[in-house]
Amino acid sequence: MKEFEIVFYDKPDGSEPAKEFLLSLDKKMRAKIVMLIELLAENGSALREPYSKHLVDGIFELRAKVGSDISRVFYFFVIGKRIVLTNGFIKKTQKTPKSEIELAKKYRNEFLNREDK
Questions:
Q1: DSSP letters for 7-72
Q2: What is the pLDDT of residues 48-88, one digit of tens each?
Q3: Could you tell me which of 8, 35, 46, 93 has the fewest CB atoms within 10 Å of its CB?
Q4: Do 7 and 17 contact (CB within 8 A), yes or no?
Q5: Helix or strand holding residue 114 (H, E)
């Protein structure tokens, strides 16, 4: 049973970076991430490594691997059992690029500062 509501962050122009990222993935990777999103909806903050990891300042990442391909989708929690997926990327190096984390933080701030959440 889903405990949490999953929503995609949408930019002021209406685009949804995390959803666009998901749609850009090949079938296997997309299926894996969709499965992880389901797990996240059921478990919320109880979902831990290897599936999920807290990065910094309330930003988490969903971690998917298919063969040698690694994908990440960032998210954060909102009061009221909501989880907002912000953005994703294909991981090429050991370290998560700081720019991707900063983007997730920027999207979160924008989301939380909206009048009509």
A1: EE---TTS--HHHHHHHHS-HHHHHHHHHHHHHHHHHGGG--TTTEEEEETTEEEEEEEETTEEEE
A2: 999 999 999 999 999 999 999 999 999 999 998 999 999 99
A3: 93
A4: no
A5: none
